[in-house]
Write a structure and sequence with these properties.
about 210 residues; four-stranded antiparallel β-sheet; 1 helix; about 0% helix
């Protein structure tokens, strides 16, 4: 059942099924550690088809020697991004320092990739404002923009091997795709990335800031 889990992402629907990530219920007030699950429901009835544990990890980003205090912890995992379903695979962005590809039929893990979580120092506000995005599948690449990571990176969809890593691209939010390019932005810059290489085909700076969409 689902009585012991909290959904932590928006749902994604594909082929008559609904997929989402969930965390175990419980007290997350001090050094919170939780298991993240990939959950699959029947789209017509809402009944549980399966649930697959991915890993156990601290959900909090912490800020230094006094990070054991709750007010120095930042939980981004409970406000994560939807999974992406493509060609029989589910790509999971956990906001817990790793991403994964699972079989859409039964949730069996096919690969995982761990990335360095962002360190909170003077940049707390910019990190907390990051919207992240569901994984973006483009050809043989999958682009990830986790909320707890600097910039964006792409993996080979079949193997999970790193294709490129761009920690300094504007990546507060993914705007969408156009003409084969991935549009990303931060508070002052809009960029169009080539999903195959991570290089910017163009970027525009807005000194007064980007207001709205």
């Amino acid at each position: 059942g689902l009585s012991d889990l909290w959904p932590s992402t928006d749902p994604a629907a594909a082929d008559g099924r609904v997929y989402f990530l969930a965390l175990r219920k419980g007290d997350l007030s001090v050094l919170p550690v939780s298991t993240v699950w990939l959950v699959c429901l029947d789209g017509a009835r809402g009944s549980l088809l399966w649930r697959r544990p991915l890993a156990t990890q601290s959900v909090a980003l912490m800020t230094g020697p006094y990070s054991n205090y709750p007010y120095n912890q930042f939980d981004l995992a409970h406000y994560g991004n939807a999974v992406a379903v493509d060609r029989g695979a589910v790509y999971c962005q956990t906001t817990l320092g790793f991403v994964a590809r699972c079989d859409a039929r039964d949730g069996v893990i096919e690969w995982t990739y761990a990335y360095p979580r962002v360190q909170l120092r003077w940049n707390i506000q910019s990190v907390v404002r990051r919207q992240g995005a569901a994984p973006v599948v483009s050809g043989e690449r999958v682009v990830f923009v986790p909320r707890d990571c600097a910039g964006a990176f792409a993996l080979d969809a079949a193997t999970g091997k790193l294709a490129w890593d761009s920690p300094f691209v504007p990546s507060t939010e993914v705007v969408g795709q156009a003409d084969g390019l991935l549009l990303t932005c931060d508070e002052r810059t809009l960029a169009a990335l080539d999903p195959a290489t991570g290089l910017a085909a163009w970027h525009r700076d807005f000194p007064e800031g980007l207001l709205g969409r």
